[in-house]
From TrEMBL:
<dbReference type="InterPro" id="IPR008927">
    <property type="entry name" value="6-PGluconate_DH-like_C_sf"/>
</dbReference>
<dbReference type="InterPro" id="IPR028359">
    <property type="entry name" value="UDP_ManNAc/GlcNAc_DH"/>
</dbReference>
<dbReference type="GO" id="GO:0051287">
    <property type="term" value="F:NAD binding"/>
</dbReference>
<keyword id="KW-0560">Oxidoreductase</keyword>
<dbReference type="GO" id="GO:0016616">
    <property type="term" value="F:oxidoreductase activity, acting on the CH-OH group of donors, NAD or NADP as acceptor"/>
</dbReference>
<dbReference type="GO" id="GO:0000271">
    <property type="term" value="P:polysaccharide biosynthetic process"/>
</dbReference>
<comment type="similarity">
    <text>Belongs to the UDP-glucose/GDP-mannose dehydrogenase family.</text>
</comment>
<dbReference type="InterPro" id="IPR036220">
    <property type="entry name" value="UDP-Glc/GDP-Man_DH_C_sf"/>
</dbReference>
<dbReference type="InterPro" id="IPR014027">
    <property type="entry name" value="UDP-Glc/GDP-Man_DH_C"/>
</dbReference>
<dbReference type="InterPro" id="IPR001732">
    <property type="entry name" value="UDP-Glc/GDP-Man_DH_N"/>
</dbReference>
<dbReference type="InterPro" id="IPR036291">
    <property type="entry name" value="NAD(P)-bd_dom_sf"/>
</dbReference>
<dbReference type="InterPro" id="IPR014026">
    <property type="entry name" value="UDP-Glc/GDP-Man_DH_dimer"/>
</dbReference>
<dbReference type="Pfam" id="PF03720">
    <property type="entry name" value="UDPG_MGDP_dh_C"/>
</dbReference>
<dbReference type="InterPro" id="IPR017476">
    <property type="entry name" value="UDP-Glc/GDP-Man"/>
</dbReference>
<dbReference type="Pfam" id="PF00984">
    <property type="entry name" value="UDPG_MGDP_dh"/>
</dbReference>
<dbReference type="GO" id="GO:0016628">
    <property type="term" value="F:oxidoreductase activity, acting on the CH-CH group of donors, NAD or NADP as acceptor"/>
</dbReference>
<dbReference type="Pfam" id="PF03721">
    <property type="entry name" value="UDPG_MGDP_dh_N"/>
</dbReference>
Amino acid sequence: MGIVGLGYVGLTLATVLAEAGNSVIGIEKRNDIVDMTNEGVPHFTETGLPDALAGVTRSGKLVATEAFDDSFTCDTYIITVGTPLSADGVARVDMIEAAARDIAANMADGALVILRSTVKIGTTRDVVAPILTASGKQYDIAMCPERTLEGKALQELRELPQIVGADDQAVADRAAAVFRKLTNSIVSVSGIETAEIMKLVSNTFRDVQFAFANEVARVCDAFGVSAHEVISSGKLGYSRTNIPLPGLVGGPCLEKDPHILMESARTRGISLEITSAGRLVNERQPEETVQFISSEIERRGLTGPLKINILGMAFKGQPETSDLRGSMSIKVLDALKKAHPNAEIGLYDPVTPQEVLTSEFPDEKTFGRFGDAVSGASVVVIANNHPSLGHISPRTISEFTSPGGFVFDYWNHFSHLPASELGDSYYAVGRSGLAPTRG
């Protein structure tokens, strides 16, 4: 079995399939990741993966290499390469095309090819299939989208229903057999495009939900009430209004998949207004909230040397991950640097190692401990929802910040606390009491 692409999706899938008894070849063009994989060391943080990967590489069930060669072919190939957005907001397919060409050159007649990457609707049929067909070889093709949650991937690969989309039942059954080694919960859908759309719709729905929560926060700010109270109290015993809490919305899926869905719809002359509005709300949040942070700096008369420290640089903190892809914390950083070019900005993350932060953000100061990240800060920005960032109350944090300093919390870690514990130096999305100014 060949897995093309050993990023987050590919490496976790390859590991679990190898644990299930399959012999797996992992193809990855980045030689440092190949070396780490063969040493049994993951190149990202994921619960349970270090032990699992070490086990399957030690047993020889999983081997990584930079390319296919003539010494082997596979009966099944799974494409898991990334599909990032280009500068103009269109999903790239160059890595999909390259993977398909590599498979076409290596496969024997009768191979099964599964596309698992998140793609524009029609990519399996219009991009991958023609490349395979041009080889002159017989093959089966299916679309089986990935849906795991970072931080729970190994668990969810064995628990979540696996979607299988193919043009005929025999191919669907063949693809289902691959994933039935992991779980008995298989959802066979009517065709390839159905499977492609299902992944995009799932993540876009979540994006729109979060956008509405952020809209609620904007209204609450305008009227000086707490969005946390409005949302949390409003759904107590009333399940029909299960609104999520506001916060930064990004990551490798939610920042990208709604754009891929909109791009797909445009090819058929359709404009997705709600999807577009949701992305607008979520993408402008860093700039709007930094406007409030700047106004509060001015109101408090905080002057240089201004120290602004951002806590939580991974795109999320729960389940915990070190993944910086699509992190809105980076957008907050960019907005703060633009608004306060002379400030000293420091970064801390509970999971991402300090040396990784230093490598990724060479112009910023980095910290390895929470205490160092708040000590002497003019502004503490809590930018992801890692539970450890909510362990020390704002009143206690204020004892370590500079005089007049304050906390701005994107995730309302402390909004459930009484005012006596919050003090007068804590603000959060939806409880700043100030409507964002509009340009």
